[in-house]
TrEMBL record:
Coiled-coil regions, chain positions: none
Protein name as catalogued: LacI family transcriptional regulator
The keyword Transmembrane helix is annotated on this UniProt entry: yes
Domain (HTH lacI-type): residue spans on this chain: 2-56
C-alpha cells in the first residue's frame, strides 16, 4: 500500500511539502503542487486518506463542467444541481468547457488548489477524449453513460431511442431518418444503437444514407433539414437525437417547403422547454434533467464526505411524450 513517503520520492519533493500540498495547497508553489498530484496518481495514494484531507479543508463549493451552456437541457440540469447544493450550503461554479478537455483541466485546478471540493461532469465519459478520474479529485458524471470509470447518474439512452423509433414504426413509418449528435459522443452512440435495434426488430434494414451527423446544435439541425429535403427518396420521419437539432430541423424543413407533420414527422430528445412551444409541438423523450442534477450533486457530496463509491451508477427513469409532430402516416 502506498504512503506519503512514496509520494514524496516519486514527486522529488520533501515529505513536508507533500503534507503541505495536501493540507494547505495555497502555501505550495504551482510547480510543486503539480509534481505532488502527479505522484499521487502514479503511486495510487489511498483515496480515503485523500478524502480525510479533503474533509479537513472544505471550500463548500463545487465545479460543474458544462459542454454547451446554450443548450437549455443543461440549464435545467444546473437548476437541479443549484437547488440541491444550496440546501447543503454549497455554491456552484460553472465551467463552460465547450467540449474541450483542455478547458476542463483548467477547472480541475480549482479543486486541486482547494478552491472547490469536487467536480460534476455533464459531458458523458468518452474513452481517450475525456478526463480520466484522478484519485485526489472527487468527480461524478451527472449526465453519464455506460462504463463511466467513476460514479455516474444517467438514463437508459439506448432504450429511450428504441422506444421513440418503435413508436414511429407503429405510426406506419418505414423510411426513418436519423439526425445524430457528435458521433463520438457516447449518448449519440447509444441513441444510434437504439434506433438500429428498433429498425432491426421491425425487419427494416439500416440505410446509411438516412443518417445525417450534426453536433447537437440548432444550426446543425437546420443544415440537416436541407439535406433531407434534397433527397430523392425522402424519409417520412426523422428521429433527432436532441430537441435543439429537432427544432432547427423543423425550421429548415419549413424553409424548404416541406410541411411538418403532414409530409414529415419529427421527434426530439430531452424535452427542453421549447419542445412544447415549437411548431408543431415536438414528440420527444423527457429526460429527468433536474433530477439528474440533484442526484448528481448528492452523489458528489457522498464522495466529498469520504465515501468510496467506485464506479456505481444510478439509472433514472425517462418519459416518452407524444405531441403533434408525429401523427399516423397517411396512406
Ligand atoms: O450534449 C448534447 C445532448 O446530450 C443533450 O442535448 C442531451 O440530450 C445530452 O444527453
Amino acid at each position: 500500500m502506498s504512503n506519503i513517503r512514496e509520494v514524496s520520492r516519486a514527486a522529488g519533493v520533501s515529505i513536508a511539502t507533500v503534507s503541505r500540498a495536501l493540507s494547505n495547497p495555497e502555501k505550495v508553489s504551482e510547480a510543486a503542487l503539480k509534481k505532488v498530484y502527479a505522484a499521487i496518481e502514479k503511486v495510487g495514494y489511498r483515496p480515503n486518506m485523500m478524502a480525510r484531507n479533503f474533509r479537513a479543508v472544505r471550500a463548500y463549493s463545487i465545479v460543474v463542467l458544462v459542454p454547451n451552456l446554450s443548450n437549455l437541457f443543461f440549464a435545467t440540469v444546473i437548476r437541479g444541481i443549484e437547488d440541491a447544493a444550496q440546501q447543503k450550503g454549497y455554491s456552484v461554479l460553472l465551467g463552460d468547457t465547450r467540449d474541450s478537455t483542455a478547458r476542463e483541466e483548467e477547472y480541475i485546478r480549482l479543486v486541486e488548489t482547494r478552491q472547490a471540493d469536487g467536480i460534476l461532469q455533464l459531458r458523458p465519459h468518452t474513452p481517450g477524449k475525456s478526463l480520466e478520474p484522478k484519485v485526489a479529485i472527487p468527480m461524478v458524471s451527472a449526465c453519464g453513460c455506460e462504463n463511466t470509470p467513476y460514479p455516474s447518474v444517467r438514463i437508459d439512452n439506448t432504450g429511450a431511442a428504441r422506444e421513440i423509433v418503435d413508436y414511429l414504426i407503429d405510426q406506419g413509418h418505414r423510411r426513418i431518418g436519423v439526425l445524430s449528435g457528435l458521433v463520438d459522443n457516447p449518448h449519440a452512440v447509444d441513441r444510434l444503437r437504439g434506433y438500429k435495434e428498433a429498425l432491426a426488430a421491425a425487419g427494416i434494414p439500416f440505410d446509411p444514407d438516412l443518417q445525417i451527423n450534426g453536433d447537437f446544435t440548432l444550426g446543425s439541425g437546420l443544415m440537416a433539414a436541407s439535406h433531407f429535403a434534397r433527397m430523392k427518396d425522402r424519409p417520412t420521419a426523422i428521429f433527432s437525437m436532441n430537441d435543439e437539432m429537432a427544432i432547427g430541423c423543423l425550421q429548415g424543413l419549413k424553409s424548404a417547403g416541406i410541411k411538418v407533420p403532414e409530409e414529415m414527422s419529427v421527434t426530439g430528445f430531452d424535452d427542453i422547454e421549447f419542445a412544447r412551444y415549437s411548431d408543431p409541438p415536438l414528440t420527444t423523450v423527457a429526460q429527468p434533467a433536474e433530477e439528474l442534477g440533484r442526484v448528481g450533486f448528492q452523489t458528489l457530496l457522498e464522495l466529498i464526505e469520504g465515501k468510496e463509491l467506485g464506479n456505481t451508477e444510478t439509472v433514472l427513469p425517462y418519459e416518452f411524450v407524444v405531441r403533434k409532430s408525429t401523427p399516423p402516416l397517411k396512406g
